[in-house]
Amino acid sequence: MRQIQMVDTKTQYLNIKSEVDAAIQEVLDSAAYINGKPVQQFAESLSEYVGCKYTIPCANGTDALQIAMMALGLQPGDEVITPSFTYIATTEVVALLRLKPVFAEVDPKTFCIDPASVRKLITPKTKAIVPVHLYGHAAPMEEIMTTAKEFNLFVIEDNAQAIGCTYTFSDGTKKKTGSIGHIGCTSFYPSKNLGAYGDGGAMFTNDEALAEILRMTANHGQNRRYYHDIVGCNSRLDSIQAAILNIKLKKLDSYNAARQSVADFYNKAFAGNEHIATPYVAPFCDHVYHQYTMIVAPEKRDGLVAYLAEKKIPSMIYYPVPGHKQKVFKFLSSDITSLETTDWLTDRVVSLPIHTEFEEEQLEFIASAVLNYFNQ
Fold it and tell me: How far lies 27's CA from each of 12, 32, 34, 304, in Å?
């Protein structure tokens, strides 16, 4: 049996090696390493896939969030509501721009931002909401957008973990996550569902004027060389990464289907086990399983992680310290309200390996090990 990986990017590459190698060689032959033809091709293809008029590639997902906030004209002291139960990138860019992160509670089943919590946190200083589509499950965007419209707020979707996820509105309308808010942001970190072989990111919008500002912000504040109209930064997706992503984008739906198949295997294996709560899928979306995250009793979790490690099975805890308890946000301590659900989940979540290249023997070995631990 092949060694089990949390994310098997090597085997995935080997299965598309000839295509990728040829695409990389083509970029090397062209010597157009920055903003070459593959970048424009990828932006156009990704716009079509996501269902947005404009895609602006950039250097990574964190930059995408920062550039989005800069482009929307948010000012120091403005409040941005975002979940605490997410990777630090979502909130560190808020602090970096001298905005104020306001931590919202999450739903205990979907792990995504709770709209009721958002409404309670809105003040005259609130300017934006950043819902995170966590682990591959969509945040409740219909309610978020209704609230944003009511209070005249911007919505920036953090879609780094859910590209390809489809959201269904109450009227039956379907949209891809990342295309619903004023700006969608994503990451092409190698382990993502659509991963490059280095860093990369992108922003989505349907607003032409906003798209132009996003482009300028990502390119030193210029729309023609050496004429700088706004303060910007330097954030580009290089041509080699775009060439790779052009190939992998065509396979994204099959990659997501493979992840869903792995999740289905785990779900069936653990069905009825009183010690395991498998991932919940809300009726308004499909789950693309960037992570397969279970809930287990806190007194059992560390033991499970150690037991799996003994069997050479990787597992991860995403995220052991939520944002509102990070030292970097200590200055906000007097303003943070109780986040009981976030704290509850932090003590209980654990993620099993999930990727696109599993052999059934590997899945059976993982599931058996998990069940054996709880049956000891």
Answer: 21, 6, 10, 46
